[in-house]
Design brief:
By secondary structure, the chain is mainly alpha-helical. Helix content is about 65%, strand content about 5%. It is built from 20 helices and 3 strands. The protein has a 3-stranded mixed sheet with strand order 1-3-2, sandwiched between helices. Strand 2 and strand 3 form a beta hairpin. Helix 11 packs across helix 16 and helix 16 packs across helix 20. About 40% of the residues are buried. The structure holds zinc ion.
Length: about 500
């Protein structure tokens, strides 16, 4: 019989090994998305398959699990962090231990193949070539969800994976509330006919100057250069290995400088969360953001609520003028503010404005629900996608590249992820309301000093990592239950002002 000290030691040593495998695979995924040549895909897929098999064996190893159980059985004899690590590890174990090892490994290999097939399909507007991969991923996702929770609706299990506690019922209610507030607002804007001048954005902005802007924005976002880096990819994302290695990515378009500008602020928002996790849990499985909803609440808070505010534009405008004097000749901060807040139904989610964004998410949410309750077949996705874009956003989808193939999520097996973008936006609006009561935030933003805001969020959210469940964490930060009406009120006030609606 091992003593509790032995169990703790064994448990921690094994966690360190699991972390190392995760680290190696994470670097490979980062490499795959940034610089890997296409022909390496097969070898990388095989290596990832072997590494994930080894990781799976570590996670399901008997001695590791019995050490973990000893800890869970003696909560009074272990410190709080170790106990919390054991609880989180147990939750993770329950999710994967029900999957036979060969199926688990095969799923990793299939995912790499699907991701590569999707990249080609998107490039060639060829949904048919991606379809068999997508069908396989959906089938596997369904099977794994049922291994884990045989009696639960599959889509609820998937939602819970990205935002613990979120169910279809809550998400339905949330989206209904958001949609009924946004649709009339969007219609009023379209009826009113006014649109800001955006012509100065639609001209060439040299890429080397855009890269310089990225470096400047990373400074504004307080990103420590010793602990962060920025890569270039097709679809920007952030990845973290510990709080000492957080990598953001962006994509530059010569004729749309605002695209990379806001990608950088968005991804830097994700990074800020990771960079401010408490040191004591930095290398622990607790040392990362708690859920995708909370993560997106931070990225979208900095991107939209701060980054698209007039005080923020005023604070960075001298730098914009310095980098792009010819392009911004005669442009004022106010004109820039109006232009980057132009609200107009469009085709591409990642380029969507703050107001119509949630409708893009709703399209994906409705389709995912149907894919997993069996009422929609993958082969009918393009048609269903185009129909919902017509219905929700009033736009005609010209081809699958600008439609169903635009996002990478499904090709990575991430089903149930999208709602977290909208939930996160709503979290952000409620955080703003609370922050405004306690902090003169717009005065800080105007002088380009985001530190007090980051300190406020670190104290209430970042430092905890995964120590609290998302619901408890956010209720603690809000000082109240989650209430989506903060989000609809925030958008109504902002866009009524921008579009002179009474
Ligand atoms: Zn994000």
């Amino acid at each position: 019989m091992n003593s509790i000290e032995d169990s703790i030691r064994l448990f921690k040593e094994q966690l360190e090994k699991i972390r190392a495998y995760g680290h190696a695979m994470g670097i490979m995924y980062y490499d795959m998305e940034t610089v890997m040549p296409p022909a390496a895909a097969e070898l990388v897929g095989d290596t990832l398959g072997l590494l994930s098999e080894a990781e799976y064996r570590l996670q399901t190893d008997e001695s590791f699990l019995s050490a973990m159980n000893e800890i869970l059985l003696h909560p009074d004899e272990v410190d709080e962090i170790t106990l919390c690590e054991a609880k989180r590890t147990n939750e993770e174990r329950e999710r994967i231990a029900c999957i036979p090892v060969d199926e688990y490994v095969q799923a990793q290999i299939d995912q790499t193949a699907a991701f590569n097939a999707w990249q080609k399909a998107k490039l060639n507007n060829d949904f048919a070539s991606f379809l068999p991969h997508l069908e396989k991923l959906i089938e596997t996702t369904k099977r794994f969800a049922l291994y884990y929770k045989p009696d639960a609706p599959v889509y609820d299990t998937l939602l819970d994976q990205y935002e613990k506690g979120l169910t279809t019922e809550t998400a339905d209610r949330f989206f209904l509330q958001v949609r009924s507030a946004l649709v009339p607002l969007i219609e009023a804007i379209q009826k009113n006919g006014y649109q800001p001048d955006t012509s100065f954005l639609d001209q060439p902005y040299p890429l080397d100057k855009q890269r310089e802007l990225t470096r400047y924005l990373m400074q504004v976002m307080r990103m420590d250069p010793e602990r962060t880096a920025c890569g270039e990819v097709e679809h920007p994302f952030t990845t973290d290995f510990t709080k000492n290695d957080v990598r953001i990515t962006t994509h530059y378009y010569e004729n749309a400088m605002q695209s990379s500008m806001y990608s950088v602020i968005h991804e830097a928002g994700h990074a800020t969360y990771e960079l401010n996790i408490a040191d004591e849990i930095a290398r622990s499985p607790l040392g990362t953001g708690v859920s995708m909803g909370v993560h997106e609440s931070q990225s979208r808070f900095y991107e939209n609520i701060i980054g698209r505010s007039e005080p923020f534009i005023e604070s960075i405008f001298p730098k914009l003028k310095e980098l792009f004097p010819a392009q911004l000749e005669g442009v004022t901060p106010h004109m820039f503010y109006l232009a980057v807040n132009k609200a107009e139904p469009s085709l591409i989610r990642t380029e969507a404005d703050e107001l119509t964004y949630a409708l893009h998410v709703m399209v994906r949410y409705e389709l995912e629900k149907k894919l997993f309750d069996g009422s929609l077949k993958a082969c009918d996705l393009p048609e269903a996608w185009n129909k919902l874009y017509r219905e929700y956003l009033g736009v005609e989808v010209p081809d699958d590249t600008h439609g169903v193939l635009q996002d990478s999520h499904w090709s990575g097996g991430s089903f149930g992820y999208f709602p977290s973008y909208a939930i996160g936006s709503a979290y952000g609006a409620q955080l703003l309301a609370k922050m405004e009561q306690e902090l003169d935030i717009w005065a800080f933003v105007k002088e380009g000093n985001l530190q007090p805001i980051m300190d406020w969020l670190t104290e209430r959210i970042y430092r905890y990592g995964c120590r609290l469940d998302p619901k408890d964490l956010m209720e603690q930060a809000f000082g109240a239950p989650f209430d989506p009406s903060y989000y609809t009120k925030y958008l109504t006030a902002k866009f009524s002002g921008l579009y002179h609606l009474s």
